[in-house]
């Protein structure tokens, strides 16, 4: 799945100009303001009207765009109604909902609760279950573990890897957290100011980064760690 060229501008000023390929699981990494969220919004058709985007993609992406691409946001409350029971927020029958809940390790009793009654980790798993409804070929994740405690973060990342193995979807993981990226993705695309500064296999780039920007991100995220482990 190759994004051959993605260009975003506002008032003739270029904000993002990148390309990348999602072979299995790709982490799009950068600091705040690097263009990560703009990229995923452009792919989802969610950019503000004042911004302009052009996207050149391969045929595989064209076939599934708008059909089998699903999205997990940073804040699950943006995808859930606080006034509707969880069960009623799915678009499939009860048997399928219970199956999805089992896959994300949630008790079916939670289906009759409201979103504010669930923990952050439970809510994120509900949103992941919702994202699996359409049996996606591409799952886009926008900082889905940022607000979670370390233990829950590890659990959610392990769950996503398990689900990918079961359902064979590709992952685009947008994050500033190198540690989470390392634990979930095979490949990494590091961006700064809307441009790619480093792109390749996760293990190779964490071990021998060539860009000073990447080195600083690694140092900030992996202080006192051994990248080769």
Verbal overview:
This protein is of the alpha/beta class and 229 residues long. It has a domain at 1-68 and 137-145 and 173-229: Rossmann fold (3-Layer(aba) Sandwich). It is built from eight helices and nine strands. The chain has helices spanning 36-44, 59-64, 94-103, 120-131, 150-167, 178-184, 202-207, 212-221; strands at residues 2-10, 13-21, 25-29, 52-57, 69-72, 138-142, 170-175, 187-192, 195-201. It has a six-stranded mixed beta sheet, sandwiched between helices. The longest helix has 18 residues, at 150-167. It is globular. It starts with a strand and ends in an 8-residue tail after the last helix. Residues 224-229 have low confidence and may be disordered.
Structural features:
229 residues; alpha/beta; Rossmann fold; six-stranded mixed β-sheet; three-stranded antiparallel β-sheet; 8 helices; 34% helix; globular
| Span between termini | 29 Å
What order do the SSEs take from the amino end to the carboxyl end, as H and E?
EEEHEHEHHEHEHEEHH
Given the C-alpha coordinates, what overall shape results? globular
> What is the overall pLDDT average?
88
**DSSP E strands, number:** 9
Structural class: alpha/beta
Q: Can you tell me the CATH superfamily of the domain at 1-68 and 137-145 and 173-229?
A: P-loop containing nucleotide triphosphate hydrolases
How would you characterize the largest beta sheet? Answer: 6 strands, mixed
Radius of gyration: 18 Å
Strand order of the largest sheet: 5-6-7-3-8-9
CATH architecture of the domain at 1-68 and 137-145 and 173-229: 3-Layer(aba) Sandwich
In terms of per-residue confidence, which ranges show pLDDT below 50 for 5 or more consecutive residues? Answer: 224-229
Instruction: Assign the CATH topology of the domain at 1-68 and 137-145 and 173-229.
Output: Rossmann fold
Give the CATH level 1 class of the domain at 1-68 and 137-145 and 173-229.
Alpha Beta
Number of helices: 8
Percent strand: 15-25%
Helix amount: 25-40%
């Amino acid at each position: 799945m190759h994004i051959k060229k993605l260009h975003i501008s506002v008032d003739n000023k270029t904000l993002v100009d990148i390309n990348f390929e999602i072979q299995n699981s790709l982490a799009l990494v950068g600091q705040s303001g690097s263009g990560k969220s703009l990229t995923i919004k452009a792919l989802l058709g969610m950019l503000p009207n004042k911004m302009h985007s052009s996207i050149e993609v391969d045929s595989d992406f064209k076939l599934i765009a708008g059909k089998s691409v699903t999205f997990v946001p940073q804040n699950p409350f943006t995808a859930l109604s606080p006034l509707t029971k969880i069960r009623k927020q799915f678009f499939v029958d009860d048997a399928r909902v219970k199956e999805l809940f089992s896959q994300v390790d949630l008790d079916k009793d939670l289906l009759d609760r409201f979103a504010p009654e669930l923990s952050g980790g439970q809510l994120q798993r509900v949103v992941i279950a919702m994202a699996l409804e359409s049996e996606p070929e591409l799952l886009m994740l926008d900082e889905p573990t940022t607000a979670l405690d370390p233990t829950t973060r590890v659990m959610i990342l392990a769950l996503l890897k398990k689900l990918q193995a079961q359902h064979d979807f590709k992952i685009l993981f947008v994050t500033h957290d190198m540690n989470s990226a390392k634990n979930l993705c095979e490949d990494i695309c590091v961006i700064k100011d809307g441009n790619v500064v480093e792109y390749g296999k996760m293990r190779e780039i964490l071990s021998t980064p060539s860009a000073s920007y990447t080195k600083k991100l690694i140092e900030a995220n992996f202080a006192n760690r051994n990248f080769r482990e």
